Amino acid sequence: VRVLIVYAHPEPKSFNGAMLRAAVETLAGAGHEVTVSDLYAMEFAAATTRADFTTTADPDYFKYQAEERHAVEHGGFAADIKAEMDKLDAADLLIFLFPIYWFSVPAILKGWVDRVFAMGWAYGGGRYFDQGAFRGKSAMVAMTTGGPAEVFMPDGRFGGLEIVLWPIQHGIFRFCGFDVIEPFVAYSAGRVDDAARAAMLAAWRGRLAEIETAPRLAFHDMDDYYETGRLKPGIEPKTAAQRRRR
Amino acid sequence: VRVLIVYAHPEPKSFNGAMLRAAVETLAGAGHEVTVSDLYAMEFAAATTRADFTTTADPDYFKYQAEERHAVEHGGFAADIKAEMDKLDAADLLIFLFPIYWFSVPAILKGWVDRVFAMGWAYGGGRYFDQGAFRGKSAMVAMTTGGPAEVFMPDGRFGGLEIVLWPIQHGIFRFCGFDVIEPFVAYSAGRVDDAARAAMLAAWRGRLAEIETAPRLAFHDMDDYYETGRLKPGIEPKTAAQRRRR
């Protein structure tokens, strides 16, 4: 398996840093091929700008998706974006490794998605969800949190983990066709003692050791929806984020 | 009312640009004081780095929240962050105006939150949710989407709007104590005709005209939870993102 880890923590001594080293060691040790995009070390640009393209579809009106489609056709992506696209093309498994910031990924990682997952390449033309461009690949969230597991329970103060991660797991990964592996969460990583951190690292190594057979999250297929985008009457919502309309 | 609009679209000719101009005109016309942070025009930095601080708590280990707490105590924020904090301090109403990117805000706006909402200032020390630092202020999402309203219904392909916006409305706004005004969404703004866009702009002006009495979203108070962070048994979940644990 070829693995791309997109890593978004600026401090190598952090628990995220330890998780990165453990992942590289465990995966490489099992014979997998590992590539790391260390976003802070790369000073990866986060904002979507005209500098993202060497081509121009419309110099008078900057519409990002239109420039993306144009760049796909004309090989017009800036070098930093093209390099990430090539890594993603080559990967079977994509891992986002990050500390949760404001119920989401850090801005630098959001920028990686905004800029790399280009319309006309990562999605578009009817290719979404189970029909997505990255069908056959898997993706996974690995993150650290400040809060404990309780607040991410369905009746917890932050809302259920599946809800908090919905924009990432469904809106990014599944949207583009990835199978989504159950997330690995190191709760309160910065607030527990060394023994607890060591146990979390061991659990992380364990998860990676069985990554090829790890459970995938359930999502609806395009066929479950009408053309309008709503679930057909016979279909019971199977995600925590969807409900039969009242 | 003093309003801060944090605006995240790079193209003035866009529908987001039209919404910005309509907002400034409508709000100023009604006697409100309006400040705009035009993030792309400002080339606002999105990534959290050491350049965010003029002070240093620990030169050997970069822990962002620790540096934030230290900077709060010692006046150590970079000028671009301090300027935004001052704007937010002065505001009664915060509006995020943006095109939805990947079920979330564009990275440049996420970076505004990551960098400006500093621990020890925007939250921390037991100040969360109804006890949050920005109690008494209101906040609101105003966004454009590619998809139509149907896909954001509770049984829609993207998940309910309240779920998609949960990390922003609950995880950022409510987390810091803001009252959250019902979001304004211009669905498929880039795909409808001029008449439909004109109607959306009129609706947007209408929402802003009655902004002081607009409905607020319902969230749980800290008292509804146990110390552990889970809802007390007698409390029925009142948000779409929370459920009684099965």
Description:
Chain A contains eight helices and five strands; from the N terminus they run βαβαααβαβααβα. Chain A has helices at about 15-30, 40, 65-75, 80-90, 105-115, 160-165, 165-175, 195-210, and strands at about 1-5, 35-40, 95-100, 140-145, 180-185. In chain A, strands 2-1-3-4-5 form a five-stranded parallel sheet, with helices on both faces. In chain A, α1 runs parallel beside α8 (about 195-210). The N and C termini of chain A lie far apart (about 45 Å). The mean pLDDT of chain A is about 95. The interface between A and B is large, with 73 and 73 residues.
Order of helices and strands of chain A: EHEHHHEHEHHEH
Helix/sheet category of chain A: alpha/beta
Helical residue percent band of chain A: 25-40%
**What strand line-up does the widest sheet of chain A have?**
2-1-3-4-5
Oligomer: homodimer
Tell me which protein chains meet in the greatest interface and how many residues each side has: A-B, 73 and 73 residues
Distance between the termini of chain A: 44 Å
Poorly predicted segments of chain A: none
* Biggest sheet layout of chain A: 5 strands, parallel
Discrete helix count of chain A: 8
Mean pLDDT of chain A: 96
- In angstroms, what is the radius of gyration of chain A? 19 Å
Shape of chain A: globular
Number of strands of chain A: 5
Give the percentage of residues in beta strands of chain A: 5-15%
